[in-house]
Structures are given as C-alpha cells and as structure tokens.
Amino acid sequence: MKTTSRNTLWRALAAGVALVCSGLSAQAQDSLATSRMEEVVVTGTGTQHRLKDVPVQTEVITRRELEQYGGRSIEEILSGLTASFAFNEDDMGSQMQMNGLGNAYILILIDGKRLHGDNGGQNDLGLIDPARIERIEIVKGAASALYGSDAIAGVINIITRKYDRDGLLLENTTRGGSYGDLRQHNSVGVAFGKFSSLTNFQLQHSDGWQNTAHEDPAQTEFPIYDSRNKTVNRHTNWQVAERLTYTPLSNLEFYAEGSVYRKRIYRPSGKYAAVDVKTYDLQYKNASAAVGGKWTPNDRVVVTLDVDWNRHAYEYVFTDTTLVDGYDPYGNFTHYFPYFPGQTNLQSDQRRTMGHLKGVFELPARNRLSAGVEVRHDWLNAPMRVDNGGTVTDHTEALYVQDEYTPWRMLQLTGGLRLDRNQQFGFHLTPKLSAMLKPTEWLRLRAAWSQGFKTPTPKEQHYRYVREMNGTYLYLGNADLRPQTSNYASVGAEVSVGGLSFSVTGYINKVVDMINLVTIPNYRAPEEYQTQYELHKTRQYQNLENARTVGVDVNVRYSFQDFAVGGSYSYLDTEANLYDTSHDRMQKVVIDGMAHHKGSCFATWNHRFRRPYRLGIGLYGRASSKRYYQLNGNGKAYQIWRLSTTHDILCRALQSHGITLRGEAGVDNLFNYVDRTPHGLHLGTTTPGTTVYASLTLRFNQGKNKFQSFKTNSKQNYNEEN
C-alpha cells in the first residue's frame, strides 16, 4: 500500500475534527446527541448511570448506530465503529485484540452474563446475533475487582432487546451478500398477564473465499501456487434461544432461558499432503441454560440471583477414511484407529457452571453499595489432548464489594475490592479506585487505577495438540503456569457541548507473569511427539517475565440536525520481556498483533421526507498500520471504506396494523483492497475485496404499546418507532 494511500484516513480524521470545532455554535443543540448522552449504562460500575455521568469511561454503540452501519457480525461492527479493536478470524474462532491484549484478557458479557466459548481464549462470536443487539457498552482497562478473571484488558457488554408487553411480536430479517453470505433472524414474542416469552432463531452462512493460492515458500519444500487452502472457509451456523419471564409482583421477576448452537466449517481438500489435504471438517456444539430473578423491595434496594450452565464442544467430522490415534468402540486407546466418512471424534468438551448473588443498596450520605458472591466451576474433557484420563477441573469462589460515594455534586468516587479463592492458587485480593470530577456541565475529568487477576485456564495448563499448517506445529500446555496480575491506570477528559462530544484517554497496563504461546526447541517436546512427527515448531504456554501496553484513545462526534460526523483514533505500544531458553538471555518482544495506529471515521445523514419514507446514508472508514508478530511475518497496513444506506417505510396504514418495514443495502471495501499474503503468514485483514449486501426487516407487533415492543433506555429509539 502506498504511503499516500495509508495516510488518507488519518487526514480525513483530522479534517473531521477541524470541521467539528469550526462548526460548533449555539444552534448545535441537537436532540440526537443529547439523547445519546442521556443513555443509561451499567457495565462500568455494575449499576445504572447516565452515559455522561458514569464514573468509569464507557463507550456506547447505540441501536441507531448499529442499524445505520449494517454490520453482518460483531467482529465487523466493533472493528468498524471503534478504533480499539482488531480481529483475525480463523476456523478456531475470533482472534480479537483490545488495546494490545488478546481474547483471553477480554471479558465478553451478554446481558451481564459471560459468553462461554473456548476457555483457551478463542471465542466464537457467531454466538452473538447482531439483529438482537440493543446496544454495546465497552469499558477498557482491568475490571477484575467487579467481574473477576478474564477482565484485564476490559469488558464488552452486549445488551439484547427484550419483549415484555402484552400482545404478539413477529419479526423477520433476511440479509444476503457477496460470497454466498446469508444472515437470517426470526423472533416470536408473546406476552400475556404476568408471563412473557421471546424465541429467537438465527442462521449464518458463507461460502468462504480465497485471496491467494500461494503458500509461504519458507514453510514448504517447493513453491506452491495452486493450493486449495481458503482465506475463510465455507461455514454454516445456527442458534435457537428462548427466554421465559414470570412477574408475580410488580417488584419481583423470575426468568429462565436457554439456547442451542451448532456450527460446521467445511474445509476443501487439495493435492499437497503436507499443506492442504483435509480429511475432516470442524464442528461445534454449544448449549446454555440459566435461571434467575430480580427483587426490588423498595426504591433503595435491588437484589439479583443468576445461575447459568454452558457447554462448548468441538469435534472432527471425517470426510474421508482417516487413521488417527483414538478410542475404539470399547473405550480402549488405539494408535491409527480408522475413522470413516460421517464419523466424529471429540476434541474437547468444556462446561462451566456459575452462580451469582448480588445486592445494590442506596445508603445515606450519598453512598451506593454493591456487594456480591460468585461461584464458578470449570470442567474440561479432551480424551485425545489432556493427560490423566482426559478430564481436568477448576473451581473458584469470590466475594466483592464496591462503594460509589458522591461527597458533592461535582465529584464521584468509586472503590472496590474482590477476594478470590481458587482451588489451585488460593486467595487473592483485587482492588480498584476511580474518580470523576465535573467542574462544569460540559466537562468531565476521569482517573482510574485498578488491578487485574487471572488464573491459568485448564486448557493453558493441560491441553496439547498437533496442527498441520504448512508444517507440523505442536502446541503444549504447561502445568507450572502462575496466575497473571496487572496494574492499570488511566486519565481522561470528556467535553460535551450541544451536538459535540470529545474525549481523550491515556492509559498504561502492566501485566506480570503474562501467559502467551512461546516457541521452544523441538527437543523439549515430549518424546512420543518427537518420534511420531517431524516437528516444524513447538510452542508452549509460558509466563512472560512481564508485559506492558501503553496508549491513547481519542473519540470525537458532532451532530447537527440530520447530519453526524465523527471518528476515533487509537495509539498503542507494547513490550514484553521474555526469557530466551535457546540463548540463555532476556529478550524484548512485541505482543503479537500489536499495531501502533488504528482509526475509524464516519459521516451519516438521516432525513425523513414528507412522504412516509426515511433515508439514511453513511460513509465509514477504518484503517490500521502494520501489525507486528514474533513469527510468520507481520500483517500489512490497510484502509477500508464502506457505504451503507437504510430505508424505513413509515406508512401509517401499515403502522396502524402494527407493521413496520425496513431495508438496508451497502457496499463494503469500496476500493477493493485485498491482502494477498501467502498462506501461513499473518494478514492485515482477511477481506475478499469489494462486497455488497442487502437486507429486509418485517416486524409485526400487535398489542399494547405496539410501537415500542422492546425495552430500551434510549428515548430516541422510542421516538423513531412512533
């Protein structure tokens, strides 16, 4: 990519900031911006605050912004609408990074409950249906004091839409796009008296694509230019979810919910045995169940109880006769056991059970106290990949308390403390402190310090597997891993005047005993693997001596009448000290996937015409500088532009019968950028080039409050439906 091309987005961002500053006036009192700042958020403190008054810096992606952007997946939404994220999707899940730290350090919540995926750190974000999202709340920095393990980099809380009004809801969204992309969403909601039910179905399919047929020559015996390996494989996944709610009293609510999820990844087979011959597809089987309730005895006390169970199973589905190590029908381990087409072989079955009791109490002297107890049990069964019978477990209990104190109107202080007891690593205390000063109505100053704590997962400790990817790679767990701790500090300022909002936050996150995959000499691999395979590389989870991320995040947004413009920029630098076992010395390395510069920008126009029609047009850009890796090359810099349109039919004749229609259409990657780096090396982006999409949503809602069938904290969303 040419330097001039790479700098285009940065110049556009700078121009946008200049436009915002020059356009600010007393007439910029835009209702959209005002309603956005009045949005109620919960993630930063676990309690409700208006966005402009939340003590912890929180980014929000609203329902209106989600619909305008038209993202087909949560990966596309986050990378396109905020500069803090980067993704490398592969067959194992979404390789996500947030401000320099990867999946294992990012806690993903759905309505406040942990998303359950691979507890080795690779989450399948296909479990999240974009059509169900009401808003997304993003809190950066260590949040372990409130949320426990996995929250060293930050928290993403995905709030879904609910249905609890009397009547019937029927909703259908069908979306199609390039490369056989199909997204199907259906909802059926029924509410009568004290009972309500919401059933959701989603289907996602893609034919996949191949950006190049070249293999990395350094990883093959001879040049290969006709490989069958795809950049993204063909895949299909579907999910059915149900939520039942019973409200016997106005201050008491019970719920029960569950879901079933399946995903199949189809892998083409080529002619090069060591590179692209595939004899099995990949299949995922997920399930979840949860029960709980909420009791509000008065306006000063809220008590909630949640118990949930989750399963994530991963298996091979054989497409050709294959001899592998496995168990015969009698449960005996056998070398080179034959599997035939259609048979499956379990690779791992991960299950998690959690219980959470929490109370929020409004106390005298402007104090709000939150206290809770959590219990978590993890269970991993991987017959082929874990020693000691293939099963390991982990158990943690925790107590936490948090106090929000407002000594006077312009100052809010928050302090929290968490005590964890892990069955392997004993007790650990995790504190946090934050403060917000608002000397005027348009200025907010925030500062935060918090520690993080994360125990090694069962997979990081005990899992081992062989992967053929342009050579034989052996991945090993490490039973001697130590827990990871972190110290996070940030300072920031936010300005909100009329239609303008601007924020800048600087942060530093120091992680001690950070766990990462490290290349070790092949002779240190277990003897049975050395004799059975010709190992290309051996990688093992190890504690790095220490690691540091430091950066600055900038967000700007300006709204006036039908127009909105804005952008975000993220500067990042990472460094880790690692003991080099081959040369008996310390060496400095980057954290894999780090990019110094990332940015996004947007300009939207929404207008309601006199006729019953509203048109929305959005132009979006996202860019990243080079991404650095320890092995297999660096990812190229890139920039991608997107054009989206929305079309709402506001016919009163339809609305009077509870029917609404919405269409979306757009073009992604307008300038057809494709990264054709050979297979086996890191990519900057996996985009196939210019793609198009279109979708149609039909909603029928008959009953009370039929134009506001979903709970929402956004007054603007209510007005939009009317």
Structural account:
It contains 10 helices and 41 strands. It has a domain at 3-165 and 346-653 and 666-697: Maltoporin, Chain A (Beta Barrel). The relative contact order is 0.15. The protein is mainly beta and 722 residues long. The longest helix has 16 residues, at 8-23. Residues 1-30 and 706-722 have low confidence and may be disordered. The protein is globular and about 70 Å long. The strands form 7 sheets. The protein has a 22-stranded antiparallel beta barrel, surrounded by 4 helices. Strands 3-9-10-7-8 form a 5-stranded mixed beta sheet. A 4-stranded mixed beta sheet has the order 26-27-31-30.
Low-confidence stretches: 1-30, 706-722
User: What overall geometry do the principal axes of the alpha carbons give?
Assistant: globular
Please state the oligomeric state of the protein chains shown.
single chain
The rounded Rg comes to 26 Å
Give a count of the beta strands, DSSP E runs of length 2 or more: 41
Beta content: over 45%
CATH topology of one domain: Maltoporin, Chain A
How many helices? The count is 10
CATH architecture grouping of one domain: Beta Barrel
Distance between the termini: 47 Å
| Largest beta-sheet characterization | 22 strands, antiparallel, barrel
What portion of residues is helical? under 10%
SS-derived structural category: mainly beta
Average pLDDT number: 86
CATH top-level class of one domain: Mainly Beta
